[in-house]
Design a protein that fits this description.
InterPro entries: TM_pro_TauE-like, TSUP/Inactive_protease-like. This is Probable membrane transporter protein. The chain is mainly alpha-helical and 264 residues long. The chain has one domain. Helix content is 76%, strand content 3%. The chain has 10 helices and 2 strands, in the order ααααββαααααα. Strands 1-2 form a two-stranded antiparallel sheet.
Length: 264
């Protein structure tokens, strides 16, 4: 087996471990891994990321459901506007982005560079949410009107559709603040949203891209094995400390991506 491909599969295992340990961050590792190590085009990499994260989150949903930590009614209601936005983004918006976004002198910002820089910006936001301390709030807030949730779901779905992310780092706080769901249950509930959004978004890609199914399925299988190991290890590792450390790593990766893409 080619050394680069072997490293890629090891990376897939690490992606699964991260998902199993902290319940998110899979796409944050998957996209850079596919682009910079395995040499995939960012559009293809974000598509593959949707399948990997969606399938992995399905396994995570089952595990959380066994513990009673999934609110299916809220998750399905919230996922409706999100998966519409994700599908439309992958089917029409991403393919419709021009190959050259703009040129300034000798510098040209291409579609691939733009997607990676946008992805890096979302990574920065995600890293801050992982690093900052969680505030304890003893007050109970009423759930907001559904039309607001619908609009917010469209926005989050569009963002995650463009960057090929599951969006767990966006959906968890949304469920806590907007749907008034406790944090632990919000994490479990977000997984069903991520599963639906990612896999439906991937369906949009299947119609526009040529998929290397043997590689993608094997990569995903290794990620799922990583999740199973990660869930087991989570019993012995502090999730809060791990989340903060991973947030710092994500921030460093985001700065690296912005530097690398800007220097091209």
């Amino acid at each position: 087996m080619d050394t680069t491909l072997l490293l890629g599969y090891i990376g897939a295992l690490i992606v699964g471990l991260v998902l199993g340990l902290i319940g998110g961050g899979g796409s944050i590792l998957t996209v850079p891994l596919l682009v910079y190590l395995l040499g995939y085009n960012p559009v293809v990499a974000t598509a593959y990321s949707l399948f990997v994260v969606g399938t992995s989150s399905m396994v995570g949903t089952y595990q959380k459901h066994k513990k009673g930590l999934v609110d299916f009614k809220t998750g399905l209601a919230f996922s409706f506007p999100s998966f519409i936005a994700v599908y439309l983004s992958r089917r029409y918006l991403v393919p419709g982005i021009p190959d050259t976004l703009f040129s300034f002198g000798e510098y040209t910002l291409t579609k691939e560079m733009g997607i990676m820089i946008f992805f890096a910006i979302i990574m920065v936001l995600a890293s801050f949410s992982m690093i900052k301390k969680e505030k304890k709030n003893g007050t109970t807030l009423p759930s907001q009107p559904y039309y607001k949730t619908f609009i917010q779901g469209l926005i989050i779905g569009t963002v995650t559709g463009i960057i090929g992310a599951g969006g767990g780092f966006l959906y968890v706080p949304a469920l806590v603040v907007w749907a008034n769901i406790p944090m632990k249950k919000a994490v479990g509930t977000s997984l069903i949203i991520v599963t639906i959004n990612s896999l439906i978004g991937f369906i949009g890609d299947v119609q526009t891209l040529e998929i290397e199914w043997p590689f993608l399925l094997f990569f995903t299988l290794i990620s799922i094995i990583g999740i199973i190991i990660g869930v087991f290890l989570s019993k012995f590792i502090s999730g809060k400390k791990l989340k903060k450390s991973f947030g710092i790593f994500v921030l460093i990766m985001a700065v690296y991506i912005i530097y690398k893409e800007s220097a091209m």
